[in-house]
Amino acid sequence: MVQVYLVFTTNYFPWLTIIVVFPISAGSLIFFLPQRGNKTIRWYTLCICILELLLTTYAFCYHFKLNDPLIQLAEDYQWIYFFDFYWRLGIDGLSIGPILLTGFITTLATLAAWPVTRDSRFFHFLMLAMYSGQIGSFSSRDILLFFIMWELELIPVYLLLSMWGGKKRLYSATKFILYTAGSSIFLLLGVLGIGLYGSNEPTLNFETSANQSYPIALEILFYIGFFISFAVKLPIIPLHTWLPDTHGEAHYSTCMLLAGILLKMGAYGLVRINMELLPHAHSIFSPWLMIVGTLQIIYAALTSLGQRNLKKRIAYSSVSHMGFIILGIGSISDMGLNGAILQIISHGFIGAALFFLAGTSYDRIRLVYLDEMGGMAIPIPKIFTMFSMLSMASLALPGMSGFVAELIVFFGIITSQKFLLMPKILITCVMAIGMILTPIYSLSMLRQMFYGYKLFNASNSYFFDSGPRELFVSISILIPVIGIGIYPDFVLSLSVDKIEAILSNYF
Fold it and tell me: What is the Cα–Cα distance from 357 to 350, expressed in whole angstroms?
């Protein structure tokens, strides 16, 4: 008993393996549950998600030291002897935030998927398979294992899109898989290049690769390959066109996973691989990242304003907000990178909430085009209140998480040692224009949906307002958005030491 107790209370217990494997393993048991309607399946999936989130929180609270920038909870088991392939997992300050975000958003997305009745077993299994793939990506310490987890999570998204989407679901699912699987080829080439460079034995360990130096031309080639792969997932213009189509057709619980977690995997990859493993190439490309990030904020904000489809408008707003992450990563400054990490977490909450509320609105009125809506504030006041508050969070209202994240990115650009004064002033001014455009498309969306008399005057304009389940999901996301806005150290304290360690390669 003493030995068992010691295993559970020390770092020798394989916490991360259990956290990665548990959702997909427990999810595969869904097919053996007795066929008694969808209720059993829903509750079973929800219990798995809650249990996984509690397990993750417990492991991180009691076995993760905040002031240690090194890898913790490390696990290293030889998997394939033939070519020295290891099951290597570990977390640091960079991965802990996205893992907890994944657990939180997936649990709420499971609750949001309550109305799904067709092929309910398969739907919930795919959500749990995605859960494992995403946590596996964030906790991988082996570059080939990272690629495998990255790929594992594509198949469930494709099936969720093609089976439970809107009218053009097959088109959007095909476009999604062509873009993401096509970009994965570049990721695989980069992984193999780094793994096989300079030795007869493949070196796939992140720690070994981080200390490896490459000829500058080769490092640039690796950087471009990884960048294309992450640029599709993030997405960065002009590789973003799959995103609005995918969000426009997907069920809103799938949209929550896409906006809340999937896009953040691209940003995580940029920091984890491009910044940490390839610092010289990142230093060369950072001015271009700044230009692309600035253009993305302006372009996506203007494009969002022109969208008639509600979900596509929110999708383009996501692309615009990703521009701040690119700017934070490109600034190569302590503040900029911390702001980018905070924006990853902040937008994970806000994006997921907006898609959830757009979906619940669609469930009531069966309209998706903004110019057909109007007057919804009177019949559904609770949804109107939540939508308004989270739209304010999206347009960076002070006191909300979006404001703090964007402000820190601003300071990161101004204090960056990498750039001269004039380029910094120019980028900041253009960014400010983008921040002015955000309230325009957010507030015009609210005006078109909720104000006026169009639906209120319609003969069949009686709707049920938000039920307890929907209200619970909305409030559960709103609380951390306000919490981070008031006390951002809650998130920043996780990553600050790791970010200093990454930036020590640059200065």
Answer: 11
Please name which of 205, 213, 216, 33 lies closest in space to residue 121, comparing C-alpha atoms.
Answer: 33
Convert the pLDDT of each residue in 52-69 to its tens digit: 999 999 999 888 888 777
DSSP 345: H
Q: Can you give the pLDDT at residue 459?
A: 56
Counting DSSP H helices and E strands in the chain, the numbers are 22, 2
Going by C-alpha positions, the residue among 104, 115, 95, 106 that lies closest to residue 157 is: 106
pLDDT value at residue 165: 80
Three-class secondary structure of residue 74 per DSSP = strand
DSSP state of 395: T
Which residues in the chain land under pLDDT 70?
1-11, 37, 198-200, 456-462
pLDDT value of residue 460: 58
In contact, 391 and 350? CB cutoff 8 Å: no
CA distance 379 to 382: 9
Across the strands, what pairs with 142? Answer: 205
3-class DSSP state for residue 72? strand
Q: Considering only CA atoms, which of 146, 89, 98 is closest in space to residue 262?
A: 98
Q: Which residues, including other chains, have CB under 8 Å from residue 8's CB and lie 6 or more apart?
A: none
Pull the structure tokens for residue 384: 């109107």
Between helix 334-365 and helix 310-330 the angle, nearest 10°, is: 170
Could you give phi then psi for residue 205, rounded to 5 degrees? Answer: -75, 135
Please tell me whether residue 239 adopts helix, strand or coil conformation.
coil
Dihedrals phi, psi of 78, to nearest 5 degrees: -70, 130
- Identity of the residue numbered 271: V
Q: What residues pair up with 89 in beta bridges, in sequence order? A: 75, 140
CB-count exposure of residue 411 (10 Å: 0-12, 13-18, 19+)? middle
Burial of 436 (0-12, 13-18, 19+ CB in 10 A): exposed
Beta bridge partners, 85, equal 80
Nearest partner of 352 among 441, 450, 252, 444, judged by Cα: 252
Distance CA 250, CA 113 (A): 12
Tell me the DSSP string of 251-285: -HHHHHHIIIIIHHHHHHHIIIIIIHH-HHHHHHH
Which strand (E) or helix (H) includes residue 148? Answer: helix 143-152
Q: What pLDDT score was predicted for residue 462?
A: 59
What are the residues whose beta carbons fall under 8 Å from the beta carbon of 495, sequence distance 6 or more? Answer: 93, 94, 96, 97, 338, 341
Q: Is 103 helix (H, G, I), strand (E, B) or coil?
A: helix
